[in-house]
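ASSEMBLY PREDICTION REQUEST
Request ID: AP-0331
Submitted by: J.K., bench scientist
Number of chains: two
Total residues: 518
Priority: normal
Notes: Please return the full assembly, not individual chains.
Input sequences:
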Amino acid sequence: MIQLFNISKSFGTHKALDDISLKMHKGDYVFITGPSGAGKSTLLKIIFGTAKPTSGQIIIDGINLSRISTQKMDHLRRKIGFVFQDFKLINSRTVFQNVALALEVTGERSSMIRKRTNQALKAVGLSGREQAFPLELSGGEQQRVAIARALINEPMLLIADEPTGNLDPDITKEIMVLFRGINLKGTTLVIATHNPELLKDTGQRVVTLEKGRVVDEGSG
Amino acid sequence: MNITLWTYYFKTAFSNILKNRLIHLISIGTITISIILLASFMLLSTNINNWARKLGESLSMSVYLKDGIDEKSKKDIESAIKQIKGAEIKGFITKEEAMISLKKGLGDQAGLLEGLDDIALPGSFEIIFKNGSNGAVDPKLIKASLEKIKGVDEVQYSQQWIERFQGVMGMLRVAGYAMGALLSIAVLFITGNTIKLTIYTRKEEIEIYKLVGATDWFVKVPFLIEGAIQCLAGGIAALLLLFLAYAAITPKTIDIMNLPAINLSFLSIGDMGFIILLSLLLGFVGGFISIGRFFRSI
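STATUS: Completed
Returned structure:
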């Protein structure tokens, strides 16, 4: 599903990632952890295609990202959901419009957009909040909107960068339950976190980065 | 063609215009002024061209006689004119009639001639040639032969005006093209900058669009439509205002001296279509340049 071969990424003289090779299979649930500045976010951006490695190759679902056109990358991105720590919601749009956006870009029919948006909002427990604006919601609710948007295209892969970084422990737990449910339905999950509490007793694969290198691989 | 996508593009473009209505209003106003200037020039040029064409349709000639000419010489000149093929004497203008006509032609400024009653205006035979503009008559040749006759001071013909006029029209045309090019650049600049402003107010939104898999064109098209709508509105407003100004001018005929009257007419459907199409094109191109720059910068 995801294959990274000797990935390195430099910003000037600073090496953010140094010779990373990893393999993730369909349906895997992988945590990327490490201290701040370890290269977690850079690694996720490279997997998502918003950053290019300085050297090395990355293959997702059989497609080599270094040989893909911009347009094909846009289309591939529709099969990958991304959840950000700062939610990346459009504040001038309602919850419904924010979630529907991921389908609008595909040119889907309006009736289908309506149906699937409602389903996605129901799946994250936000039915009845369709017409609210992001700033009227709590942090946990905003993150649920972002998750609904990431899920609406039924992605093969869901990437989350510090998805609970801005949330309190109770809401963090709710969001992690939501992620577990998504993974059980067959979606591959890659979550970056620096919070060790999140990894405890999950039984999932944990890749630890430090100064841009993989220093440990085990399970939580 | 995906109707859902195009509906989305137009909805987004109109909603962007409404959200940034002040910027767009200012921009439409400026575009309107630029297009009014361009269209006014076209209007002026069209009317002068029509007038010149009218002037050229008939050939007329004035045969000015020397002062103090005797009756016999006058008769000789008259019979020489009558022998010219196609020529018809419209009348003889005496010195006195010439003065009255000059005063009438000067209108309010006739006072300039006060005290100049003994001014030596020559008498003249006024000749017209039927089918004078079809090339059958060579006015230069007739002028030369008439000027050889004793008692003829000078011969002037209407096409001399046109020949002189064509030079002025040529210069006017070059000035028109230059002005049109400059105004088009100004419109491109205004549209491009307005679109750039709206793009930057939505920079974060565009980044989110890209993150959820929007293609570049999905993001670009509403901005192109926005630019086109803006210029189209400017073009239509300019034509409307120009028409109102044209309608407000009461005399539709202007007399200058003793020359044929200028019958004012508004721009033709073709000219108006050209202005609308040019506006649309400038809107697209202006938007296109701004978007291109933005996408290269992200």
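REVIEWER COMMENTS: The CA atoms of residues 87 and 129 of chain B lie 5 Å apart.
SIGN-OFF: pending second reviewer
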